[in-house]
Amino acid sequence: MSDTTSSPLPRRIADSYVDALVELDPLAGTYLGVAESHSRLPDFSPAGQEAVAALARTTLERLAEAEARPGADDEAERRCARLLRERLTAELAVHDAGEGLRNLNNLFSPPQAVRAIFTVTPNETTEDWSRIAERLRAVPACLDGYRAALAEGLKRQLPAGPRQVTTVIGQLDTWVGTDRSWFAAFAADGPAELRSELDSAAAHATAAFEDLRDWLRDHYAPAVEGAPDIVGRERYARWVRSYNGTDLDLDEAYAYGWSEFHRLLGEMRAEAEKILPGTADDPWKAIAHLDEHGHHLEGVDAARNWLQELMDEAIEALDGTHFDLAERVKRVESRIAPAGSAAAPYYTQPSADFSRPGMTWLPATAEDRYPVYDLVSTWYHEGVPGHHLQLAQWTHVADRLSRYQASIGMVSANAEGWALYAERLMDELGFLTDAERRIGYLDAQMMRAVRVIIDIGMHLELRIPADSPFHPGERWTPELAEEFFGRHSGRPADFVESELIRYLGMPGQAIGYKLGERAWLRGREAARAAHGDAFDPKRWHMAALSLGSLGLDDLEEELARL
């Protein structure tokens, strides 16, 4: 939607921002389903980053003018204005601190974003593949700009963490391959009439990723050797605002993480005793037993199909009882993640017109063996009623909100908090039908509590409490964090390592799951208290899912009013 009025209100300002941002960030355009974006890649150079920041500054100026106009106090306008101001202010704080000049991590930095965009670019027609070929040819210039940003970061003494560098080099090794690159394999699915063009374009993309890998290995890694992996309180607080939409009391949040740890440990002990008597003192022994002897799936096809059935069954059971779902929201697809992805499952939102559905992504394992206890609540989180129901509903009601509220303006802690709330909801509704599934759910909840403890603890170098079962009185380090996570998780060692690197590279993001869930629960309880016996969970859920994005500062307040 273009700004065609002389006196636009906040929602029009927000959508004008989306239009302008898509011009600067074609990755966002592809996720939104903008066809003109599918052949292009962003400019990650310092100049490209500054262009995005300049757009944010200009938009904030226009927003201030819009908020002074008649009609800006309308509830829909007010809510959009609060989100837009909070998000752009948080993003500018990150930019102005130079964080984009050391943007390197194992999940969401430019190398992963560039590779991942090809998995969601339309590829059904010859014209689609022609655009893909053009996008593949854009990879070298895109990565050159990114490398220039990292080089500028070195000049300004803004290094990425050494563990991030080592991890990304390993990812790039996987993607470029030895006999055949990921890009060559991807392009091989294209039409025969474009075979030569696609093969050539894939070779250009592969060479660009090889060049980036070699530069990171030979130049960047030696330059950042000895730099800290942790970020300290000032940088951490800035990232907390960015990912959570609030300025947290970090010491209170750290204490909350420990309280949840102790609560969940008690529940896990009860379930462990049902699974394997004698394991109450160490519930993860029961989980290890399930790894060998519990219900499991063999092969990626069996896992993908089973997860599709799980989501389809959840939609059928929940629609009309606890949710009221539009037909297009009911479509979600189970997929297998590309090789070289991080170890955690993830979800991608549908395009604005739903031509690309919402999709869950399961990383393949070396053994192609998938224990069910570890999948059920995870797919309630990633799929239904978790990320898919929220983000697809945002897309469905975007015309009542703004495109910004339904997409670009997403606050991580809002979305992750809903998804964790969704896991708990399914437990409340009785969908975790046996001890095996329930201990998997509790283990997943425990992981989110542990995230709060170690993410805050290691970045701020806090002291471990005296009542901790683990190294009481010592100060957190990444090494202690990895050991603690490994002892209090049913996940394999490679997953634990991948997660720890994620927390170091994305400070403040991982705490949003548990703290976001707390905001959703508090908001629901406040609404229930206000309505008494007239509280209608289905009406509340749909109203809550139709709010669009909100930071945690605003989320609890808005939920309580529903």
Automatic annotation (TrEMBL):
Domain of life of the native organism: Bacteria
Pfam families: DUF885 (PF05960)
InterPro entries linked to this entry: DUF885
Name this polypeptide is given: DUF885 domain-containing protein
